[in-house]
Amino acid sequence: MSHISSPAESSLLVRDARGRYHSATANQILAAARQVVDQKMQRGADFSSPADVRTYLRAKLAGLDHEVFAVLFLDNRHRLIEYVEMFRGTLNGASVHPREVVKEALRLNAAAVILAHPHPSGNPELSQADRMITRQLREALALIEVRTLDHFIIAGNSTVSFAERGLL
Q1: 3-state secondary structure at position 21
Q2: CA distance 60 to 58
Q3: Residue 44: which region, alpha, beta or left (left: phi > 0; alpha: psi -120 to 50)?
Q4: Domain spans in the chain, listed from the N-terminal domain onward
Q5: What is the pLDDT of residues 88-102, one digit of tens each?
Q6: What is the pLDDT of residue 93?
Q7: Out of 1.10.357.10, 3.40.140.10, 3.40.50.1000, 3.40.718.10, which CATH number does the structure's domain 42-161 have?
């Protein structure tokens, strides 16, 4: 006699407010993964390894159906002060205001930043707008002696680093 698995045996489950279990949706799984990453990588987490940054940002940004522009604010030893999703946009882009990033860096007394945003389209290639905003932010932050360490583009399982491409 063959065993037929039920959805509960082959899927991840979530519990509703009444305590009943249901199959988790992809969005619920991604939200749970983001919570785990937030718990694991809290204030003081070391972000000197590009691999750690890549893993963190994939968990935070992969699977979003809209653009956000996020900034990792770091201390002088590249430890996390705070992860902030500064701007939210549509499928095609988000407006980024350097003044607001500078204000937040000053408020948090950051020594360095790592910029990041997803490409919901799945295409990891850098656009001219990506290059331009990176340059503007790097120049604005340099005026207050905050280093821009990298800018990551997350597109599904692909990640592009400006620093690794020699663009910072």
Answers
A1: strand
A2: 5
A3: left
A4: 1-40, 42-161
A5: 875 456 688 999 999
A6: 60
A7: 3.40.140.10
